[in-house]
Specification:
Shape of chain B: extended
Strand order of the largest sheet of chain A: 1-2
CATH superfamily of the largest domain in chain A: MetI-like
Number of strands of chain A: 2
Distance between the termini of chain B: 68 Å
CATH architecture of the largest domain in chain A: Orthogonal Bundle
Largest interface: A-B, 92 and 88 residues
Helix content of chain B: 55-70%
CATH class of the largest domain in chain A: Mainly Alpha
Radius of gyration of chain A: 31 Å
Mean pLDDT of chain B: 89
Shape of chain A: flat
Number of helices of chain B: 18
Oligomer: heterodimer
Order of helices and strands of chain A: HHHHHHEEHHHHHHHHH
Structural class of chain A: mainly alpha
CATH architecture of the largest domain in chain B: Orthogonal Bundle
Strand content of chain B: 5-15%
CATH class of the largest domain in chain B: Mainly Alpha
Largest sheet of chain A: 2 strands, antiparallel
Strand order of the largest sheet of chain B: 2-1-3
CATH superfamily of the largest domain in chain B: MetI-like
Low-confidence stretches of chain A: none
Number of strands of chain B: 3
Amino acid sequence: MQATNILILILALGIFAFYIGRGRSLAMAKPLGGIRNLHSLPSYYGAYTALWCALPSTILLCLWMIFDEPLINSLVMGSISDQLADDSLATYNLQLNKISNIAEGILSSRGQSPELLIAADYMSRLQTMSQWSLTALMLCLTMAGLFLGSSKIDPAFRARPVVEKVMQNLLLACACLAIFTTLGIVLSVLFESLQFFRSVPAHEFIFGLEWSPQTAIREDQVGSSGSFGAVPLFVGTLLVSAVAMVVAVPIGLMSAIYLAEYASKSVRAVAKPTLEVLAGIPTVVYGFFAALTVAPFIRDLGTSFGLSVSSESALAAGGVMGIMIIPFISSLADDVITAVPQSMRDGSLAMGATHSETVRRVIIPAALPGIVGGIMLAVSRAIGETMIVVMAAGMAAKLTANPLESVTTVTVQIVTLLTGDQEFDSPKTLAAFALGLMLFTVTLLLNIFALHIVKKYREQYE
Amino acid sequence: MSKPMNNVQKIQHSLTKRKRAETRFRWYGRIAILIGLAAVMMLFTDIISKGHGAFRVTYIQLEVEYDQGLIGVTNLTDPAQLQDGNWGAIPKAALRAKFTDVSGRRDKRKLYGLLSNGAGFDLKDRLVANPLLLGEKERIWILADDDIDTYYKSWLDGEPYAARMSDKQMAWIDQLHNEGNIRLQFNSNLFTRGDSREPEQAGIRGAIMGSLFTLILTLLLSFPIGVSAAIYLEEFAPKNRWTDFIEVNINNLAAVPSIIFGLLGLAIFINFFHVPRSVPIVGGLVLTLMTLPTIIITSRAAIKSVPPSIREAALGMGASKYQMVLHHVLPLALPGMLTGAIIGMAQALGETAPLLMIGMVAFIVDIPAGFTDPATVLPVQIFLWADSPERAFIEKTSAAIMVLLSFLIVMNTTAVWLRKRLERRW
């Protein structure tokens, strides 16, 4: 790939520039009587030259790669715009795809209309031109940087502060990536969701009781009303998460208490890592386990009691999700329980309380905010969990609170709506982003609140 | 009539009850741990018992003849002839020669069903590699069909699964077995081939290569960026609102559901920047954003564990702040950072949901050779196979899970070992 090659070239030139700069400063220092006459160490002069050489060209390369394709596309489409049948976006994209496929040789040029062939030819010419001019520009820029950088080298030149300032800004940029990621998430889901709410009113989405996202292709089609009421999804998500919590909270909490308060060192050394293995298993494995082992088992068990259990029951998905969350709760609870000061334990024991009474009346109340925070983090995890429910829960949106029936969840619907090829602007696809927005908002609020509680509590004892 | 009790008596009276409550409480804890451990055991035994069979696969020995007339190929170096050759005819003829009494179209189709429908192409590859065989005969082990494979394995275990078998086929297999012409061999296809609709021909090499390329990109991007961000936040960041804001963002991103990162990748990378779908580049970018918080948080912990005296000593000797960080803090914190990177990579290796959003869920037969080839990754392959209706895919899926889990176990053990080995107490 062209861009990778150029990047490697820039990198190589940068290293070369480092040695040029360093060598130049050393050469300057020699007649003066050694490097102690330089303002900065020789490697700083090297780094200074390397920065001049590599940094501007890398930034330009990134910009070029972003703007290259849209620019070429708009030029090509501008050249044939008067031949387009209509100016809808769909026709535009279709023609553009055709042209670029012909230009890349994926689509045979036989039997295509001459206008398209001309446009494709134009496109491939533009692409070649763009690549050559990019290479030439990069070479010029790196070379110019190299010369500029090395010409500035002088024993009195203060290279260290400059280099350190640039580096500090690079580090800051890396740290800010987290903000850009959050911003990107918010903007992408918000933007698409707003588009969705233009075709489906927000209150209908949030309070509607029927979910069937198939939109009609023909007018008279059956069962494709395209209703986007998300309440069944929310209920399904809550049901599965509730089952997961019923499994995970007691087991996770009790094992944390036992490990922190009762277990001998050797038991702890074995049991804790083993439980943590559960946290390291990929969710797709849990999904497979839930769909092929647990769900049939629960169905057969239910049948033997005379209950009708769906083979995609919320119980199976939620139960397995609970198992996944056990180590999450137990390690968080373990942390807060061990953070409770020993003096509180000693006080309670000295008053004659048994160990379990100390745990129940003193340690748990003291650790409660942390435990609640941990549970909330676990809930947000359960709500956002995808693979287990995609593989083990159902697709049909049913409004039910019976864990033996099959329900669907927000994440399942996001995956179903977005996998495979669809048109990007249909309400069906955009609905996935609206669901994503709900999911993001809810988990974000849970996380902020939980982290706040955990942090506040931790400060209290430290 | 009970006597009034004094306090000592009251307490002694309640002691047995309290002691029983104590024992009960302990047992609750033990039971909780046992349930957790049992879940680990069950998960592993279930996967292993389902998947161990997939490492061996059924082969049938036949006498094949590379008859030029039958295949319609005279020159093995001519690609057009190779393309048009009737390769499927070789194993069919071999089967007819073996079971001469079979007649009728339906029976013949059953007979041909004994072998994998890719058998002809395997023979073609063999012939191209050994051109002297053209026109010759040889006895060779040929890959059996997945239904035969399932049946034969279950039959060897004593509980035959014959739902997709006809009586004739079972009789043929009996005959082959008595002659020693059917056996289980190590399933090298599993590790050397890409995906296939036919379970017996499907392998995980494509998925492993896809995972490898995606992870390389993720590591190359997320490790330097994560470490830089951690250095900034620990060593240089002023205590102000902006820094707090960055920290809050990082902590929250660590807890955002992974599927949201998939939506981000779809909307930003694919729809806005027009990165092609299904390629390791876009997968790597999404996983980078996802693993960054993990790497930043662990790297910060590693930097924090370097004692301030080392920093002060460096500064006292006249080092600039950057020299202090680069020459002293970073080398000492590196083991902890590497541990964090490995854990982050393990997380990225097991991640499925965001990759479904960005099209890495396609059916891809070719083994990807670079960052821009359409690819899928190991967990997505598991998801795809788990969805396939063929019974033989259950075994394959479990085997792929075993491979994935062994990768993860190796990575996590390395991380733990590294931490133990390089951990320094100050």
